[in-house]
Amino acid sequence: MKPLPHRYEAHLTGGPSGYAHVSSAGVPVLRTAAPADFDGPGDAWSPEQLLLASVQSCYLFTLRAVAHASQLEFLELELKAEGIVDRQAGITRFTEIALRPSLSVPPGTDPARVQAVLDKTQRACLVSASLSTAVHVEPDIRVMATAATVP
């Protein structure tokens, strides 16, 4: 990791209606719009979906770093995210975010050790730690069976 602080930039263009486009150096442009729940078209990434995707991506990249440092091998992560937007104290905001990671690990992996790595990942995720909304993690640890031998 490069020394802190890090600086990130994004650029948005848009008009009084329709889609907006978010760009940043070296990455593809994203077409964005309000979600259907807020009278948008529902066919482009919304700020709400981008927030969830940011939490998910950060969780995976943090898991990779924590697992590597802990010498824990994992085979695959499938991560579902659900965010609830509601009014709270007169403000429309995310009131809850739930992450449901399904982590596949090799046979013989200690589930308690996997849980410790997942707990550390949750605490260390930069994006989740930057939010005022609590992020709850409901993991499913899957120990993969050994591959069958073909005669």
Overview of this structure, please?
The protein has helices spanning 47-69, 111-124, 126-130, and strands spanning 11-14, 20-23, 30-32, 76-88, 91-105, 135-137, 140-143. The protein has two domains: 1-44; 46-143, GMP Synthetase, Chain A, domain 3 (2-Layer Sandwich), CATH 3.30.300.20. The longest helix has 23 residues, at 47-69. Helix 1 (47-69) packs across helix 2. The model has no long low-confidence stretch (mean pLDDT 95). It contains three helices and seven strands, in the order E-E-E-H-E-E-H-H-E-E. It is α/β, with parallel strands linked by helices.
Annotation keywords:
151 residues, 3 helices, 7 strands
The gist of it:
The protein is of the alpha/beta class.
Taken as a percent bin, the fraction of beta residues is: 25-35%
Mean pLDDT across the residues is 95
Main β-sheet: number of strands, strand sense, barrel status?
A: 4 strands, mixed
Number of helix segments? Answer: 3
